[in-house]
Amino acid sequence: MKNYEVKQVIKSRYSQCAAVGGVTTTCCCAGEPTASSGFAADHGLYSKEELSLVPEVSRSLSRGCGNPTGFAELQPGEVVVDFGCGAGMDVILAAHRVSPRGNVVGVDFSPQMIDRAKQAVLEARLKDVTEFVIADLEQVDIPDDFADVVTSNCVINLCPNKQAVYREIFRVLKPGGRLAISDVVYEEKINPDVQEHFQETWPGCVGGSLEEDAYFDIVTKAGFTDLHVIARHRLPPKELEEMACCPGPEFTPAPDTADLNAVQGKVASIKFTAIKPAQ
Predict the structure, then answer these.
(1) Three-class SS state of 268
(2) Mean of the pLDDT values across residues 51-79?
(3) Which residues contact 277 (CB under 8 A, 6 or more apart)?
């Protein structure tokens, strides 16, 4: 698929998921469809205390592979931008950390997801410290040198032009600002035929994933320094199946079993930070 076709497919899948509220399906695709509180919540990526701060509408639509607000070391008064905010789970958690003087901006290209996020921040009584922008992550409507921190949670792997996304993150960050990212990568080289199969339908979080070295090369070429991997989690078979069908089986076709078997033990979620050098 061409880049614009990939974007439209992803936008359609996640918008449909948001329209039904994420409550009629498993968060991704392993097992029979049941009600779910979201992949990140179901897999223990957030503490009970954190989950208690987030309205159900946001929890049920969470599709992350990490918890960037948990390692971003957010401080009161900071400005945060969440790239690919979905229904606002990480926006809400960041807002609790930076309020009352700080501000959090959530960016997503799905109007339906943004509607859910706005509903969630109203329920969480955080409207005064949050705002939302509907935009392609390659070109967000945010000024230069705006944010102290940019977060993103299992979204950039979906983007066909990761170079453009990281250049945009670099532009938005203040000099000396930092990023805190959770994402999915291949830990070793993948058979090109298998990768081509994934890219034909862009399934879940394996369709656009890159080998780790190639991914980090994009980050450093965008200008970031002091890249530090906080943690990594190799996806076991069930989690890999789930992530390969995000946001849910009604929306994303399951990859061929042989292709999934070919990448077993080679896919990991990673958490990392990096810095935009001070001028």
Answers:
(1) strand
(2) 93
(3) 175, 176, 223, 225
Q: Cα-Cα-Cα-Cα dihedral of 33, 34, 38, 40, to 10°?
A: -80
SS3 at position 104 = strand
Taking the C-alpha atoms of residue 233 and residue 17, their distance in angstroms, rounded to an integer, is 26
Cα 272 to chain centroid, rounded: 13
| φ, ψ (nearest 5 deg) of residue 247 | -90, 0
pLDDT (0 to 100) of residue 23: 52
Please state the rounded mean pLDDT for residues 97-105. 97
Name which CATH class applies to 3-275: alpha beta
CB-CB contact of 102 with 80 (8 Å): yes
Residue 243: which residues within 8 A CB-CB, separation 6 or more? 28, 39, 65, 184, 204, 205, 206, 235, 267
Out of 20-34, 53-67, 152-166, which region has the weakest mean confidence (pLDDT)?
20-34
Mean pLDDT estimate for the chain: 90
